[in-house]
Amino acid sequence: MPDSATPIDHRAIADAVSALREDRLVVYPTETFYGIAADPFSSLAMDRLFVLKGRDSAKTVALIAHDHASAFALASVIPAIACRLADRFWPGPLTLVLPARAGLHDSLVGPDGGVGVRVSPHPIATALAAGLGRPITATSANLAGQPPATAIAATRAAFGDRVSVYLDGGELTAALPSTVVASNRDGWRILRAGAISAAQISAALDATESQ
Asked: Does residue 60 form part of some domain?
């Protein structure tokens, strides 16, 4: 997993942020796989994202935020369990599905009214979201139905100049995507298995209850 020592090309980040502000798309590394960033508050950018991937527009898109406050600002309410899990696993490969606040793009909100977000430990992902000043899309940088990309070359081969900026984070070694968890006042459930196991989540919640 990357750490704070991972070098950041600040000029490349600035170019990528400028592209996002112009409704263009950026490929970037996360702690799991390469992702495609779009400004989730731009309908034009979101349309371009779905066209690029050949993805069903009915499928929801998760987000990466640069910190807890930015992530939780997407929610209408913040379940206590979500707070406890965020405190334990963020930054990290845990996507929390929170009750979505009003006004989010339709493709960000699932059928149960939730928006998925995580805080990534990858410094490039963090710098990109922080530079934009709001969360970025976290959909994997691959064509729909293809395996997620662990190398920048694979993303260039798939998308070419349809992506404006490629941020190279080297070869990524994750074997699993982020775990996706929904929670409410009655409990939690895993919507997608991933890098953080159910046992780890249970142990973290048990530990906080005993404090």
From this structure: yes
- Nearest-angstrom CA–CA distance, 183 and 163: 35
CATH of the domain at 56: 3.90.870.10
Only one residue has tokens 């899990």, namely 85
Q: Is the peptide bond before 91 cis (omega within 30 degrees of 0)?
A: yes
In a domain, 156, yes or no: yes
Measured CA to CA, the distance from residue 40 to residue 203 in angstroms comes to: 33
Q: Which residues pair with 131 in a beta bridge?
A: none
- In a domain? residue 3: no
Using CA atoms in the order 132, 133, 137, 142, what is the torsion angle rounded to 10 degrees?
Answer: 30
Residue 98 belongs to what H/E stretch? strand 94-99
Give me the residues paired with residue 26 across strands.
37, 165
Please, what is the Cα angle at 58 between 133 and 196, to 5 degrees? 60
Query: Which domain range does residue 20 map to?
Result: 10-209
Rg, the chain, Cα only: 16
Taking only the tens of pLDDT, the chain with its 211 residues reads 455 556 789 999 999 999 999 999 999 999 999 999 999 999 999 999 999 999 877 789 999 999 999 999 999 999 999 999 999 999 999 999 999 999 999 999 999 999 999 999 999 999 999 999 999 999 999 998 899 999 999 999 999 999 999 999 999 999 999 999 998 878 899 999 999 999 999 999 998 776 6
Decide: helix, strand or coil at residue 24: coil
Number of structural domains, the chain? 1
Is 4 inside any structural domain? no
